């Protein structure tokens, strides 16, 4: 961003859009000067006159979920009108050791009484509420804009799918305690559906009358969103269906996409309830961004659409092996990492990729690390049976769609055991070859339990050739022993694993990472610790490549591969990016954004 551009942005942010003198409710006779800018509501006490320092409160709009101007009088003053803002600022709170910050609901109600009669005061109160809502939703308003309710879209209707078993099993509790109150403040109508089993969400969205909804939001981990995206891609009308905005409110254990949304929203890295509250606030703001999907094909020819990652080796092992610590939430990965480090393995394989080129040069991404290691210069058909009205509060219920189609995937087979291998402190790194012309055809280890009878649609994979044919000439192939291979297309691999700080939702890139054999356990520990800050690029064993397509051919007989954290059949796998194929609710207005 140029200096001139950022100065203009600052000037725009500081411009006063509305200004008034108001009272408050409940009142002891106080008067306030209110000013609204594009980013904040400034509240300055006028009466009683503040002693000493000027008393000014600034409510950042990014902390505000909604604003209402109720009709009618709420006091004996029949000529006054009112509007309320619902904010969730971060407040300090005492915990067992020291203090932490958490968001708490704060309602401020202002009394508009400067005009001659109720109708005029009501018009002013409504103007304030509309202006604030427009700013929250990213609808452009300026000091010259004629502010009227006509600027606002109709209230949104969201389908919320909650996985009661996700993460630590607290999704329903969090939904009632945190999510529903906040989205009601934002005037969002919803229907809440509890998923009852694996693939329930996938089947549900296949039969959904999409016109009824402005978005589908999962209250869960990344696994449920993977089901929703693939369910949409299994519809004959996939082209339109996949345009339906999707969102995530993190209640899983990894919460990678939520970590990426939180980061793109400009919030500090957060976990658990704090991450959930940040993401719910962003959902209230509603901005939608295009997001890339990667079409992934496995050795049996099964195709699926991935929004997060394909992993092999250390990362997929930890993901699967730590399932048994699910009750621990995100700590499951820390423990899983420690356990796996104790028996660090290598995996022989062939990795091929099509480098991403910008014109003729390969795209190279660099990041700047501040002295303290932190990041610098990075941009901070069958309608559902439902009982709710468009005005909001709903009854939580299970909506079960009766389906006769034989579509259930039987991918719940037993974990294969690992090859017993020694675990030396240093692993051999001399067995790497680098090749631009691939050698022998892949050796696939097919796994019967992953057969898939679903009909998947989607765009043509024009960069890929069938898995039993050699990769095209312009691809690069590496063969050797890997500790891990990861293709990722989001900034985060978990809410606190800042894997690809430079990634963004619709850039059309797969970030391919690998760690070759030869890394010590101590270096792996340092690498994973550095990942929390996103400073792991300093490590020599860690290689990164932006690519458009990749193929991974394991030459080790047994192992685990995951797509978006879900285990898939083991064997050759390949994928290519499809730029901006779906729409993600990020809540962060960007250039050319839309709002649900
Ligand atoms: N009621 C249910 N009982 C059991 N499994 C369910 C139920 N509803 C959904 N599932 C399955 O649970 C899987 C994992 O769920 P989800 O991704 O929400 O949580 P998670 O695995 O804890 O989170 P993360 O993916 O972030 O690690 C989903 O793939 C889904 O198929």
TrEMBL record:
Its EC number is 2.7.1.91. SUPFAM superfamilies: NAD kinase/diacylglycerol kinase-like (SSF111331). Keywords: ATP-binding, Kinase, Membrane, Nucleotide-binding, Transferase. GO terms for biological process: positive regulation of apoptotic process; sphinganine-1-phosphate biosynthetic process; sphingosine biosynthetic process. One of its GO terms (molecular function) is sphingosine kinase activity. It comes from the Eukaryota. Residues 153-300 form the DAGKc domain. It is found in: Endomembrane system. One of its GO terms (cellular component) is cytoplasm. PANTHER family: SPHINGOSINE KINASE, SPHINGOSINE KINASE 2. This is sphingosine kinase. The gene is SPHK2.
